[in-house]
Amino acid sequence: MDEITDEAEAVRRPAGDAESSRANRMWWDRNADEYQKDHGEFLGDARFVWCPEGLDEEEARLLAPAGALAGAAVLEIGAGAAQCSRWLAAQGARPVALDLAHRQLQHALRIGDGLGGSAEVPAFPLVEADARALPFADGSFDLACSAFGALPFVADPERVLREVRRVLRPGGRWVFSVTHPLRWALPDEPGREGLAVLSSYFDRTPYVEEDAQGRTVYVEHHRTLGDRVRDVVGAGFRLVDLVEPEWPEWNQQVWGGWSPLRGRLIPGTAIFVCERD
Ligand SMILES: C[S@@+](CC[C@H](N)C(=O)[O-])C[C@H]1O[C@@H](n2cnc3c(N)ncnc32)[C@H](O)[C@@H]1O
Fold this sequence. Notes:
Bound molecules: S-adenosylmethionine
Helix content: 25-40%
Shape: globular
Number of domains: 1
CATH architecture: 3-Layer(aba) Sandwich
Distance between the termini: 34 Å
Radius of gyration: 18 Å
Structural class: alpha/beta
Order of helices and strands: EHHEHEHEEHEEEHEHE
């Protein structure tokens, strides 16, 4: 859960698929500048950071072994300013960076200095679309990835997973990170107050922010760990690993509810490594 827009009020209540998508498009358009200002340096312009713990694909190699990305067609979902895609392009992959929010993709253009590319980072397409309906033909990609993009925000994550499976070729790999489901039972605070269980882990009621007029301006959806596994398997993937990155000594940053204090005690991120047969 990220910063609240002006005078927004947080509640737990149901929120449908269309309502969630509409609110999040608006929220990410409005908050993209602040998000990139606050987190851009940590993310790096051409790094592939999976999570606030700082796990980097350069070291983790969850998508493909070193050297195996050259020529691979990779779809990045909820790409934001496309930092991960930029790293993929520099490895010789052929990424496509997709995001719902126009303003996030404008930051991709800003960082990349337009669409021209460079000797170090070849050009790649940016696509403004909703992950719930991917505008690509079946079997278009070898790999797909998402670092906290789309999945935490949609009411029907299995729909997104089915779409990802459709656009992947047989044998394709799909790796995505989300907030660790355990975090939902605790307040989203980086200090000691964020270490007490205050609500039920089993309560799937969405987290919603409303503005002064009662309009929905932000939504996040909770899935338990078991729900996420069932979504993955139900969409036709094989789950080959579930990575819970530990907080490294070097990382002293606080990012929303993520902090060294909490990171040493409880997981903050879950990364699902899936394959399509
Ligand atoms: C937390 S940001 C992550 C961005 C990037 N991966 C990063 O690590 O900085 C979440 C991104 O998901 C995008 N997003 C939210 N819902 C989406 C949807 N339904 N389809 C595509 N993108 C979506 C948002 O616009 C936002 O850019």
